[in-house]
Amino acid sequence: MADTLHLSGDPVDLTAALVDVPSVSGAEEAIADLVERSLREQAPHLEIVRSGNCVLARTNLGRDRRVVLAGHLDTVPVNDNLPSRREGDVLHGLGTVDMKGGDAVMLALAATAPEPKSDLTFLFYDCEEIEADRNGLGRIERDLPEWLAGDLAIVCEPSNGVVEAGCQGTIRVEVRTSGVRAHTARGWMGVNAVHAMGEVLRRLEAYQARVVDIDGCTYREGLQAVKITGGVAGNVVPDACVLTVNHRFAPDRSPADAEAHLREVFDGFDVVVTDFAAGALPGLRSPAARELVEATGGVPVAKLGWTDAARFAALGMPSVNFGPGDPLLAHTQQENVPVAQISGCLEVLRRFLL
Amino acid sequence: MADTLHLSGDPVDLTAALVDVPSVSGAEEAIADLVERSLREQAPHLEIVRSGNCVLARTNLGRDRRVVLAGHLDTVPVNDNLPSRREGDVLHGLGTVDMKGGDAVMLALAATAPEPKSDLTFLFYDCEEIEADRNGLGRIERDLPEWLAGDLAIVCEPSNGVVEAGCQGTIRVEVRTSGVRAHTARGWMGVNAVHAMGEVLRRLEAYQARVVDIDGCTYREGLQAVKITGGVAGNVVPDACVLTVNHRFAPDRSPADAEAHLREVFDGFDVVVTDFAAGALPGLRSPAARELVEATGGVPVAKLGWTDAARFAALGMPSVNFGPGDPLLAHTQQENVPVAQISGCLEVLRRFLL
After folding, report:
1. Cross-chain Cβ contact A231/B235 below 8 Å
2. Which of A12-21, A209-218, B72-81, B164-173 is the most confident on average?
């Protein structure tokens, strides 16, 4: 492992160096140390704070506008895909997509932009890939909330180098049916809770998901059974069945709207909300977001998966996802990124911010 | 615990004494010892063999006909329902119904009928309430098959003191659906195996079970989902779902017939047989069975649950269930038997056999 990162060098080499420091969720100390040390050494113009395994850095130039850039340092577990490996114009390895390419772009920007047009805040954080209550950015939001404040949030999650705006919300509910146990030799004396779930599955099959256009971005919703359990013993009519359903909803709806919708879809059944996370409106009408989109020269699209963009949206900030790599490759063994996307993203952000 | 049982005394007291010797499946040694010792002492006219925790006893009088009586000595686990407790005309406690009342009737008959019209075989056996391959009667069938031979088998399982004829068969199948995994944020890229199970549940709901009359006994079939599982993670479209279905079928069908029927019902789906047991035809047209029915003075009914009667039927013997106690109370904490049924059953068998 390198003692320090070369922040102002080739951002592709920088990505590879970050990939080669394993940082599975919960074990980010080494990479956080390296990021902190390199920033203190090569970006003396920044205010730098270390908090747990988060590294926070910002300019304090008194600009009218502040842009917040966020990147998590952790990865999903290693899957025989380390160290990094470059083949021609493609960099392979765990985290090349999710999201050390984005981290490298942020670090390069931090070190090489002492006089940006907007004040800049860089948030490197831990534990994004695991339970929401361990998310490092959530901890910073609670403990050091001023570090999240700004006029635009750019979460540098993989987005193929185009602006993926906002994000969809997610809600999980359990639909429960009940019945009456009986010996299967006298099944008519019971009421079968699994059979009763047939009607729920019928509604799921027939469900027509909304397609919603917001600020020119198309959000495609979904309603999927993700788990089903029921049964007592091989000779007993089951008296309970539980179906877990995950609904992904466009950010024009709140979690409460989504819940009301599900209660309508499953009218007549017992519905219990088990967890939810609000989506984020794209916020593309804000001047800062518009300028970023212009700098990319591309057309923004909707973010369908949930990201920490929603956290900033909940604070009232326009928030977008923008980073190198194909999000469909995230969490796969084959993660890889075309190197041109890494330098391309850095170039767009420099155009936007300098 | 008594050193010996008083076999020729009150069969209700004898039932209580048997109930008060705990004999959960796998722990029948004490009760088998007691039964063996009592028979050797009080029924010297019988040939007696001890095999494991089975006690076998028979007359060898050269009669034209042999009647086999069978009773298991084990019970389901104790559930705060020991020792026995008599309240007025009702005896309460674990095993009063399933099936120490029947065992007591058999023991009383064994000790008090040295000169029956038919030769008699008494089979007391272990491990009926657990996995089929540990069933003591199955072991005797393999090791000492001549002990099961006869012209009529009476399994003294609880039957409310009326003849419950034959028994239904049982078959379990797994119906499996498959799909394609995808992130629920992009659910349309996957195929949901749980949704696909909707059609299977629809067929179960619509299923019309046969009601079959054989020898005047009405067998009511059933088809019940007993277990369902599916799901990968809260954000993944499931690629597999497994539904276990239990079919109880009338004894006019073989397990192969029943399997063919289920393949028809679930046509288009992957169906795997996991276990089955053949039913038993009532065999009420045989002279021996007719005489037993006459002795009861009642009308025989179909046995819906599976019992070891099927084992004898498979050997070509007419086989019925006849014993004190309501089978619906078997395996419940509240097991109890009206004492008149115990002495009533003994009286019927004496009328039939002496």
Report:
1. no
2. A12-21
